[in-house]
Protein 1
Amino acid sequence: MTETAELGHSAGSDRHGDDPGHAASTQRPGAWALVRGQIAHASRDAWRTPVSMVVTLGLPVLFLVISGLAAGASPGVAGDPMIQRLVPGAAVFAIAMAAFVMLAYSIALAAEQGVLKRLQGTPLPAWAYLIGRAGAAAWVAIAGTVLMVAVGILAYDLQITPRLLPAAALGLVVTILAFAALGFALAMLLRSAQAVMSAAMGSVVLLGFVSDMYGFSGDMPSGFAAIGWGLPLRHAVEVLALPLQVDASGSGIAWVSLAALLAWGVGGALAATWAIGREASRTGGQRAGRRSAARGGAFAYGSNRLAGMVWGQVRYANRGIWREPVFAGFALVMPAMFVVILPQVVGDPVIDGVAFSTSMVTGMLVFGLALTAYVALPEMVAVARDRGILKRLRGTPLPAWAYLTGRILSVFWITAITTVIVLAAGWLLYDATPATAGWPALILAILVGVACFASLGMTIAALVPNAETVPAVALATFLPLVFLSGIFPLGDTLPELIPAIAAWLPIAPLVDSVREAFATGRLLLRELTVVIAWTVLGVTVALARFRWQ
């Protein structure tokens, strides 16, 4: 049963259940029955995709565990233990992932695949489908919040004040509503599922640093603090953190932040309404024509010369990336933004003999290449496979291997641009430049890293059965390694076992190789050997398991 058929079936069957006496009834279910059925359907759909649950709930839990280990019993706001601030931040992380990131992505994907359009031919109104998606996201957000509180109580002795629980519940409801409205707006404005995922995930992860979502206890520069207070994440943290203060007085309700969240929610709802009206006024033929032209470009550079065919596919792949300006900005700008913002937030301390800013420059070189090769590349290939493009290549003069080679080489091109931007930011702001003789070793380490993560990205495309799940799998395996592998220098705050394990995974050895090449110009042969071994493993699995249709 297709998704649209199942949706239409749930709209008609929810009211009467399995009673055959109602089989011929033409009475439509009421509004509440429609919404209830769609919430149940969307909830089942979410739990049938465990990878999305790993991304939505697993990442905040991982963040809470790591930050809790790093903070220990250190004091935070108002002298309370730091965990009293970390748990609200992790809860906001989970809420934003469920009610903003995954909700926006699911709606954009439904629009992209024509599900919303096909609803017009079923008894189910589009509004019931959308409310059902939002309701399911709300349940996941509530489950995530409960999970963060449970981890805080069981592992870190989080203290709860019972009389302030109503204030926390009010803040939770308003936060979910605000982020759901913003998720609707993002999905309706961008429409592309890939662009929505990149923009939503990137904004939550990046803006969390200036919104106190990660619980930085140091003094933040006034400019960044002002930016944080203008964002919904900061106010969400405040409305959930105030009821968890150990000696909080009064009602525990952060009225100003609550009002700010309501304003953001209303703004998101208005933006979504405007975008829906704009989309309804467009003709479908123009968009279909653009998509057909873009897909046709895959064959536009067919040639009898191998180099010409590969070069044509590189050009085509690059055009496809730049047609998604949000993703291009996410992949190119986000690493540089980390370089700009984080040293300002934490004060650029010296960690392990290296300035924090310099460590961020080298870390973001690895972050940028892995983001493009490991997250973006497999999704592009999986989408082409699901749409039948790879299968149709067999009826054209273009070999399938030339198509894939073009995409892999385009990753090297995007990585080169990202590298230039990150190095320029480090040089202009912190005078962080590679050693005079370090360029050859640095370039070699970056090239080896791109090859490694491109091969691992192709492995994901080979093993994951559909394009919808590929971004979730990639991000679920990528982001935890980012925090565990030294891309963000944490000093000696992690347990010894974590760096020992990370040393045999691909990111940490690559980070060490890039940092050593940047600082001294030397190649770390052991670390590069580990990266090359992962490359061989990725190529082997990808070749053995890749499917063309």
Note: The first helix runs from residue 3 to 13.
Protein 2
Amino acid sequence: MITDEIREKINRGEIYEEELRILVYSFAQTISITARKLFKRKEIEDDTFIDYFKVETIRLME
């Protein structure tokens, strides 16, 4: 989850690239964990679907 403090730092341009990268990866991990909880059965397609959104999230933030 992105806190108000982090959001304000991003908007002001006061966040370093390393911090932003860590934030993006943790956001992608949170998406992955949440998405895996939504699926009742584990399927190979589920992993592919979840990994796609993780990659797209990271790609859009770079």
Note: The first helix runs from residue 4 to 12.
